[in-house]
UniProtKB/TrEMBL annotation:
Keywords: ATP-binding, Microtubule, Motor protein, Nucleotide-binding. GO terms for cellular component: microtubule. Gene3D superfamilies: Kinesin motor domain. It comes from Phaeodactylum tricornutum (strain CCAP 1055/1). One of its GO terms (biological process) is microtubule-based movement. GO terms for molecular function: ATP binding; microtubule binding; microtubule motor activity. It comes from the Eukaryota. This is Kinesin-like protein. Pfam families: Kinesin. PROSITE patterns: KINESIN_MOTOR_1, KINESIN_MOTOR_2.
């Protein structure tokens, strides 16, 4: 006598169901499809809005691939940078340089509950922690590098990525051990002196992981501490979203550096997109369900109506 055998069969979606679920990207959708749906938000940064895009999901589910991509398979960041520079050139040439656009870039990581400036000369794992003053509106004290070409931004990004803490775990050979926040500012000044300032924040979060699956509890030391900090900040993020959704009580933005940095994106004047990534394997079913629950909660959060940042 053995156990009862169980088969599970998932039928393919029917055409009308595909239409209803079109915001779900399946494994057959590529980077172009994700970009096509994301691109209109980048235009909002040009129009003077604060825009935030963050990738959430368990370790190894495709967050960094979605945001940064691979050579020949560009992610959201490089496509956004190119779009912003194309727009800058177009605006300046159409106005015969009467309109000017200035762009600058910031790159931060949150590693073990410390905010680090990835562009600072002493950045990196062995570097000193940069003490940043984080206000509810913005981070003060880090480097903001002005950028005049896409190549410059991509070089700065590659430098930051090389300094970011990435390690092999048993779930992912290139696992990001920190949350990375890339910000590009887009400031337009017209010939009559009117300014509008938009910005795009792209956040590649570190992935949640179970200690037993990641092997961190057996390796111990740094990996264990990193995993605990990652999980703690992601669970604070989840609590923040829950409070925002229910509208009850104080929102615990200050309980983690990550939520502090995302405060304006989640509870303020911003247009925000969460991309929730899932691992396709049945063995990760539990984690995928948790990520989808998170997606559902985020989807119910009512943000204040975003207002463009204009000044004279
Ligand atoms: N849509 C995709 N198409 C093809 N390969 C993908 C896709 N998404 C992810 N991958 C591959 O899966 C692996 C894990 O992806 P990635 O490193 O982006 O995960 P992650 O969610 O950022 O993980 P972590 O949280 O550990 O940093 C990588 O080898 C990546 O190239």
């Amino acid at each position: 006598m053995g156990n009862i055998r169980v088969f599970v069969r998932v039928r393919p979606p029917l055409p009308e169901e595909v239409e209803n679920e079109r915001y779900v990207f399946s494994p057959k959708h590529g980077q172009d499809d994700v970009w096509e749906a994301t691109e209109p938000l980048i235009q909002s940064a040009v129009d003077g809005y604060n825009v935030t895009i963050f990738a959430y999901g368990q370790t190894g589910s495709g967050k960094t691939y979605t945001m940064l991509g691979h050579p020949g398979s560009e992610g959201i960041i490089s496509r956004s940078v190119r779009k912003l520079f194309d727009t800058k050139r177009e605006m300046e040439s159409l106005s015969r340089s009467a309109t000017t656009v200035e762009m600058s870039v910031e790159l931060l990581e949150v590693y073990n509950e410390q905010v680090r400036d990835l562009l600072a000369p002493n950045a990196g794992l062995n570097g000193r922690e940069i003490s940043l003053k984080v206000t509810s509106q913005e981070v003060v004290g880090n480097l903001c590098v002005s950028a005049s070409t896409e190549d410059e931004v991509m070089k700065v990004l590659a430098l930051a990525q090389s300094r970011r803490c990435v390690k092999a775990t048993s779930s992912n050979s290139q696992s990001s051990r920190s949350h990375m926040l890339f910000t590009i500012h887009f400031a337009v000044t017209t010939k009559n002196g009117i300014q509008r300032k938009g910005k795009l924040n792209v956040c590649d979060l570190a992935g949640s992981e179970r200690l037993d699956k990641s092997g961190a509890n057996t390796v111990g030391g740094a990996l264990l501490l990193e995993t605990q900090n990652i999980n703690k900040s992601l669970s604070t993020l989840s609590n923040v979203i829950e409070r925002l959704q229910s509208g009850s009580g104080n929102v615990p933005f200050r309980e983690s550096k990550l939520t502090f940095l995302l405060q304006n994106s989640l509870g303020g004047n911003s247009k925000t997109l969460a991309i929730v990534c899932c691992n396709p394997l049945p063995s990760h079913f539990h984690e995928s369900v948790c990520s989808l629950r998170f997606a559902e909660k985020v989807n119910k959060v009512d943000l204040k109506k975003a207002v463009a940042n204009f000044s004279c």
